[in-house]
């Protein structure tokens, strides 16, 4: 089973984008990139980094779509390419920067893994629905 | 301190803001109609004042952190009114209604100062 979370930093990011100028952590201003990690662990709201993130991240393509009502869902997607020798992925994350920055959303495979061979593409999509 | 209902267009606004579009909802409006807030609301029913507020990130509970947007401002009343509704919008006039709340009636008189704080929380 996988675990997907909107992190505490992600909640701060949303409220900062909604106009907050004080309170909570200082975060970035754009949804920027998706990255992956290779260590075991379950996603949790307080996470600030992936489990053993392996760089580089890939810039995300972001848009709004309808799940229940018009434009109520943010979609961020990126295609990550398997590096030389391949990679065994255990978790992925959405960030507000292509390096460093803040972890906004996170998904862990919770004991499972996904092997991405060299040159293969892993398409990762995060969706955030405002209910 | 009322917690507001995010409107349908408010949800769309939130997504737009995450994509870097539209203005942030940092204006507070107050009105005199006590009709319950509805997701389909696009404006206060009977607005009588609006002005810019200051917004902050807060933790509203429920086990989540940084999960609230709090907007606050102080109004000086220009006449006699009964406060029954509050909204947070994106502009000094018109604009997008992000959220709306109703409150128990509060009688206000010319020259009164009232500080309004509206918190919009998420799970």
Strand and helix layout:
The complex is a heterodimer of chains A (about 130) and B (about 120).
Chain A: E1 3-6, H1 8-17, E2 33-37, E3 53-59, E4 61-65, E5 73-81, E6 87-89, E7 91-95, E8 103-108, E9 114-116, E10 121-129
Chain B: E1 5-6, H1 8-18, E2 27-31, E3 47-52, E4 54-58, E5 68-76, E6 81-89, E7 97-108, E8 113-121
Report on this structure.
The complex is a heterodimer of chains A (131) and B (123). Chain A is globular and about 45 Å long. In chain A, the strands form 3 sheets. In chain A, strands 1-8-7-2-3 form a 5-stranded antiparallel β-sheet. Chain A is mostly beta strands. In chain A, a hairpin with a 7-residue loop joins strand 4 (61-65) and strand 5. The mean pLDDT of chain A is 97. The relative contact order of chain A is 0.28. Chain A is 8% helix and 43% strand. Chain B is mainly β. Helix content of chain B is 9%, strand content 46%. Chain B has one helix at residues 8-18; strands at 5-6, 27-31, 47-52, 54-58, 68-76, 81-89, 97-108, 113-121. A 5-stranded antiparallel β-sheet of chain B has the order 1-7-6-2-3. In chain B, strands 4-5-8 form a 3-stranded antiparallel β-sheet, with no helix packed on it. In chain B, a hairpin with a 7-residue loop joins strand 6 and strand 7. The longest helix of chain B has 11 residues, at 8-18. The mean pLDDT of chain B is 95. At the A-B interface, helix 1 and strand 4 of A face helix 1, strand 4 and strand 5 of B.
- Main β-sheet description of chain B: 5 strands, antiparallel
User: For the largest beta sheet of chain B, what order do the strands appear in spatially?
Assistant: 1-7-6-2-3
Strand order across the largest sheet of chain A = 1-8-7-2-3
Q: What's the count of strands of chain A?
A: 10
Number of helices of chain B: 1
The whole-angstrom Rg of chain B is 14 Å
Helix content of chain B: under 10%
Task: Point out poorly predicted stretches of chain A.
Answer: none
| Overall outline of chain B | globular
**Protein structure class of chain A:** mainly beta
Number of helices of chain A: 1
Could you tell me the strand content of chain B as a percent range?
over 45%
Q: What is the element string of chain B, with H for helices and E for strands? A: EHEEEEEEE
What is the approximate shape of chain A? globular
Poorly predicted sequence stretches spanning 5 or more consecutive residues of chain B: none
Q: What would you report as the Rg of chain A, rounded to the nearest angstrom?
A: 15 Å
How far is it from the N-terminal to the C-terminal residue of chain A, by CA? 23 Å
Distance between the termini of chain B: 18 Å
């Amino acid at each position: 089973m996988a675990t997907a979370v909107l992190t505490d930093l992600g909640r701060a990011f949303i409220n900062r984008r909604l106009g907050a100028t004080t309170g909570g952590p200082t975060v970035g201003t754009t949804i920027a990139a998706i990255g992956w990690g290779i260590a075991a662990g379950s996603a949790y709201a307080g996470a600030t980094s992936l489990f053993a993130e392996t760089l580089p991240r890939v810039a995300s393509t972001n848009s709004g779509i309808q799940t229940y009502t018009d434009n109520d869902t943010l979609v961020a997607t990126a295609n990550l390419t398997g590096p030389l020798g391949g990679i065994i992925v255990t978790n992925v994350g959405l960030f507000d920067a292509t390096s460093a920055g803040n972890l906004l959303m996170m998904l862990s495979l919770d004991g499972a893994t996904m092997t991405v061979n060299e040159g293969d593409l892993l398409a990762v999509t995060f969706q955030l629905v405002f209910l | 301190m009322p917690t507001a209902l995010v409107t349908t267009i408010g949800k769309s606004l939130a997504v737009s803001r995450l994509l870097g579009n539209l203005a942030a909802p940092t204006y507070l409006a107050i009105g005199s109609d006590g009709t319950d807030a509805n997701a389909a609301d696009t404006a206060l029913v009977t607005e009588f004042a609006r002005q810019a507020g200051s917004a902050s990130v807060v933790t509203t509970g429920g086990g989540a952190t940084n999960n609230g947007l709090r907007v606050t401002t102080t109004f000086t009343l220009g006449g006699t009114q009964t406060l029954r509704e509050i909204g947070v919008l994106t502009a000094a006039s018109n604009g997008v209604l992000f959220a709306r709340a109703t409150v128990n009636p509060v009688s206000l008189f010319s020259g009164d100062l009232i500080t309004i704080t509206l918190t919009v929380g998420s799970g």
